[in-house]
Amino acid sequence: MSGSFQAGQRVRVKRDFPELRGPCHIRTPHYLRGREGVVERPLGAYPNPEDLAFARPAAKVPLYHVRFDQPSLWNEGAAGDTVLVELYEHWLEGTA
């Protein structure tokens, strides 16, 4: 399964908080929701851990390394410092 995003593409992490709607398992850090980053590389497709955590059937979902500018996340660090995070495709959206 190939994903929707390519290396070098700008993406935004969805600003969603499903944990407010009930029990769930989320692998997307709160501090990244609504933030923009750049796809470093696709990693392949893996069973969705948000379903696996509840022993539900889990479709394979593309996973990406996404790079974020560190100073814009935490107001600390030097220019050029980055944070690399693994994010599943259903948490990402393209930017205009």
From TrEMBL:
Pfam families documented for this protein: NHase_beta_C (PF02211)
SUPFAM superfamilies found in the cross-reference section: Electron transport accessory proteins
Alphabetized InterPro entries for the sequence: CN_hydtase_beta_dom_C, Elect_transpt_acc-like_dom_sf
Start and end residues of each Nitrile hydratase beta subunit domain: 4-93
Superkingdom field: Bacteria
Protein name, entry field: Nitrile hydratase
